[in-house]
Specification:
Layout (H helix, E strand, L loop, with lengths): L4 H20 L9 H35 L11 H26 L11 H10 L3 H7 L6 H18 L4 H22 L2 H14 L5 H32 L3 H18 L2 H14 L5 H14 L2 H18 L5 H14 L7 H14 L7 H6 L1 H27 L8
């Protein structure tokens, strides 16, 4: 019987915690465990460096292909403004809500993580102010410049129409190749996560488990707040559809999203529920929901922004308002077109951490608890897409033509 990758990662994480406890918190002679910890450190560094290697190709091809594959339609221009305004607004609200919760509750503050010590001395020099972000984002030598270049290239391919199709085919093939390489790297994930967690637990305060539990509760609570308060409020204010009516109409799609952790796999169910139960125009829904699955990733943007601030707390670093705005903008941008798989999410999480100079080795903590959290943020992503279809129809109903 073949064990799934998620279960392999879980097993690796549990083994890493166990080895870390044995090597760092047992009665073994002082110094006798150092060679073993160094060996685990080497394995962990190899895994992290492989993820860094593939980060730029994955971000470039996924964002470019994600935007460029949005098909143009003579009628689509009538609903684009409403869709872009809705997606940008709700994604920004999600990320900002996450940061407010993290600044208020502050999970991880005061915990001594020796694994990140070497990163603390260089943080101040590497931290970006908002002005630095504006000036360096367009630089080809900066990863944020790659994100913005990808967005412009995707938009340019759409604008070229048929002339841009040969380039789009190349980008799509490069994306497939990149994802294949990511798959190869992820075969090492169980060993890499085990090694990173072994070193982390061996050199950390035992209260790390309590802090992780607190962080998980903050993530779940904030995500549910966005999904049960913010999004339904937007829905009611614009369409006058009650939150209870929406949840009853879309419960099958939301349950499917929870069980599969995939917006793409849920799409057929979402289309059926929203057209049958909420009477959204079928042509509009067929356009808005797939596009929303690319552009509107509230749960993902919120999670990555909150995770970055959590890592900063673990490192004992205070992120200024300007740096937190960089985190929000980066989380919003990398969520566009990001493939719905855990491995790709880990790579984009590295990008968010690097945008403000935080240690990328922290993905060892984040990936170990990511799977259960992924189910909840996927539900919010799907909910946001479906609410977006209702909102866009209401805003554009005067100009929308059903003959799309």
């Amino acid at each position: 019987m073949r064990i799934s990758l998620n279960r392999q990662i879980l097993i690796g994480a549990l083994l890493g915690i166990a080895f870390g406890i044995i090597l760092g918190h047992s009665s073994l002679p002082l110094g006798s465990t150092t060679p073993y910890i160094s060996g685990f450190e080497l394995l962990g560094n190899i895994f992290i460096n492989l993820l860094k290697m593939i980060m730029i190709p994955l971000v470039f091809t996924s964002i470019t292909a994600g935007i460029a594959n949005l098909k143009r339609s003579p009628q689509a221009g009538r609903i684009w403004p409403a869709l872009l305004l809705y997606s940008t607004t709700t994604t920004a609200l999600a990320a900002i809500t996450g940061l407010i919760a993290m600044n208020f509750i502050k999970p991880g503050i005061g915990l001594d993580i020796h694994l990140f010590k070497e990163n603390m001395t260089s943080f101040q020099a590497r931290s970006l102010s908002f002005n630095d972000f504006v000036h360096t984002a367009m630089s080809p030598n900066n990863i944020l410049g790659v994100v913005i270049l990808s967005m412009f290239l995707g938009i340019g391919i759409i604008a070229l129409g048929e002339k841009g199709q040969p380039l789009l085919r190349v980008i799509n093939k490069l994306f497939e190749l990149t994802m294949a390489i990511v798959g190869w790297i992820m075969r090492l994930a169980p060993v890499g996560i085990m090694a990173l967690l072994t070193k982390l637990v061996a050199r950390s305060d035992p209260s790390l488990i309590y802090v992780l539990g607190k962080y998980i509760l903050v993530i779940v609570g904030t995500t549910l707040f966005h999904g049960l308060i913010t999004l339904p409020l937007i829905l009611w204010l614009i369409t006058r559809i009650s939150p209870w009516q929406f949840l009853q109409a879309m419960k099958e799609a939301l349950i499917t999203a929870f069980s599969t952790s995939s917006s793409t796999a849920t799409l057929p169910v979402s289309l059926r529920c929203i057209t049958k139960n909420l009477k959204v125009d079928e042509h509009l829904a067929r356009f808005v929901l797939p596009v929303g699955a690319i552009l509107n990733m509230d749960g993902t943007a919120m999670y990555e922004a909150m995770a970055a601030l959590f890592v900063a707390n673990l490192c004992g670093v205070h992120l200024a308002l300007a740096s937190q705005l960089v985190v929000v903008l980066t989380a919003m941008m990398v969520s566009i077109g990001a493939p719905g798989i855990p491995s790709a999410g880990m790579v984009t999480m590295i990008l968010v951490l690097r945008s403000v100079g935080l240690p990328v080795s922290a993905v060892a903590i984040l990936i170990a608890i990511d799977r259960p959290l992924d189910t909840i943020r996927t539900v919010v992503n799907v909910e946001g897409d479906c609410i977006g279809a209702c909102v866009v129809q209401k805003i554009s109903q005067r100009t929308f033509s059903s003959k799309m």
